[in-house]
Specification:
By secondary structure, the chain is an alpha/beta fold. It has a single domain, classed as Aldolase class I (TIM Barrel). It contains ten helices and eight strands. The chain has an eight-stranded parallel β-barrel with strand order 1-2-3-4-5-6-7-8, surrounded by eight helices. Strand 4, helix 5 and strand 5 form a beta-alpha-beta unit. Helix 2 runs parallel beside helix 10 and helix 8 packs parallel to helix 10. It starts with 6 loop residues before the first strand and ends with a helix.
Length: 207
């Protein structure tokens, strides 16, 4: 299994519907193996998510970026994605692993109790947030850096999400995060390729 990417470019229905989605996806993927593009659309059918994931796979292949599928381990297995990202209403990590044992299995968590449960259920990594206030989840209080620290102490790689920009990427790195995830800071950036490199820079500097 390939190393877990540091930067997770999470999508939603609006991102996927944008006319320049392919151009932006290719620009983000240009950062290479440190990047994972996430096929995520809660309102889409399995067939539609599979089409998106297959398109991402084609865009990600030349720079060797990864593709993860959110919520659908069956789709991830069908397209040979690198990983699966699960939310509270999805299969448990152990069950998702039965569907697709070759994949990274991640779990989205919002507090320490959820993080501990996800680890016990067999998650390989945790996407933790919202760390900072974000318009994507306007009604959700920001958890802050303490959640990053507490989740990292559980011994699984922590990907911080929620209001992440280049400056905050350094803060979550210092708090113990393995990497970051973003929607707005990547997909709606003026220069998605530069935005990806800026978010990765705290980890690239240690290489």
């Amino acid at each position: 299994m390939r190393p877990l990417p540091r930067l997770h470019a999470v999508t939603d229905g609006a991102v996927l519907a944008a006319e320049d989605f392919g151009v932006r996806a290719a620009a983000i993927a240009a950062a290479g193996a440190a990047v994972a593009l996430h096929a995520r659309d809660h309102a889409a059918s399995g067939a539609a998510v599979a089409r998106v994931a297959a398109r991402m796979m084609a865009l990600a292949r030349p720079p060797e970026a990864a593709v993860f599928v959110n919520g659908r381990p069956d789709v991830a297995a069908a397209v040979h994605a690198s990983g699966v990202q699960l939310a509270a209403g999805d299969l448990a990590p152990a069950d998702a692993r039965r569907v697709y044992p070759q994949a990274w299995i991640g779990r989205s968590v919002h507090d320490v109790a959820e993080a501990g449960a996800a680890v016990r259920e067999g998650a390989d990594f945790l996407i933790v947030g919202s760390v900072y206030p974000t318009a994507t989840h306007a009604g959700r209080p920001a958890a802050g850096l303490e959640l990053v620290r507490s989740a990292a102490a559980l011994g699984r790689p922590v990907i911080a999400i929620g209001g992440i920009d280049a400056a905050r990427a350094r803060e979550v790195r210092a708090a113990g995060a393995y990497g970051v995830a973003a929607i707005t800071a990547l997909w709606r950036a003026d220069d998605p390729a530069a935005a990806a490199l800026a978010l990765l820079s705290p980890w690239m500097e240690e290489a």
